Predict the 3D structure of the following.
Amino acid sequence: MYYETKKERKRDKIILIAFMSVIIALLCVLIIKSDYNKEEKSMKSEYDVSKLSTINEKNVDNDTTKTIGDVIYSVVGISKLQQTGNSIFLDDSEQKLGLGSGVIVTENGYILTNQHVAGNKYSNCYVTMENGTTYDGTVVWSDSNIDLAIVKISADNLNYLELADSDKITLAEDVYAIGNPIGIEFQRTVTKGIISGINRTIKFEAEESYMEDLIQTDATINEGNSGGALVNIRGELIGINTVKITEAEGIGFAVPINIVKPILEKLVETGKFEEGYLGIYGYDKEVIPYLDSSLNINSGIYIATILPDGALFNKGAVVGDIITKIDGTEINKMNDLKKYIYTKKPKDTVKLTIRRHEKEFDIDVQLGYKMN
């Protein structure tokens, strides 16, 4: 009897030791695993490259195709005459139909395009969506000097493009040019390139006119792409495609989007835009060599013409004067002057700082009304 009891005690002791050994082993495994997870988490937060290049928690490279693919639904076709067939292969189709493109920039139907596509203010056009639906459009704003126009259609809940900051674009930045020539053959054409130049000035020999501060790109701009979108890799609108150089391959131009932001903001807020009118034609310093090689202007805006119906007429400024500031802010680009004027209303007063023969003086000008 005593022998059996001792044997049982010895067995119980062995079982207890074995049990404790298993518990200790499990604890060690848990501690090691916990330390490993902490180290792995630390390494991921420090070295996970995909997280270092994200936009709104999305990987740029992985999301680019999807983003650009979504952009095409915001690009529309615009024609001055109603299209009666599906084909764009018509004799003199661009002249007869005024074929071009446009970009939806608000969900309630404001569309940005070229003035030479949509026409002057109050004129009508036809807007064809990606799904083939056609709307009557009305031009609510237009400026031939920068070749831009805004068209309004009666529609809601539209896919629209977000506007980028075109002042922050950089050389060699990847871009996409997107246009819709209306016909089914080449609608929603997408071409890829880079920004190959900024602040470009081009001259139209036949009209003796200039376009300034343009974005240059080597993304192919096809027939019918006028008024279409130039977007960055995030699918944001940076410019409106306007013209290409026919004598060379891979040289196209777009109007930077920032110039029309004040107009769009007022249209969205109030449903109308009353444009203040200064009444001048002016040029950046880059254009001056075209006008007069003897002129040497390092800054400011050169006044080339003062219009008789403008606010600056008979206010003390003359042709050849240089506008250096507006309301105390230095300006060197005509588009910057326009953009500032767009933030004002008729009858608002602005202060122009004028330089003439190395002397500066101020002129207070009450803006007039632009009739068309």
The domain at 274-369 is CATH 2.30.42.10 (Pdz3 Domain). Confidence is low (pLDDT under 50) at residues 1-5, 36-66, 84-96.
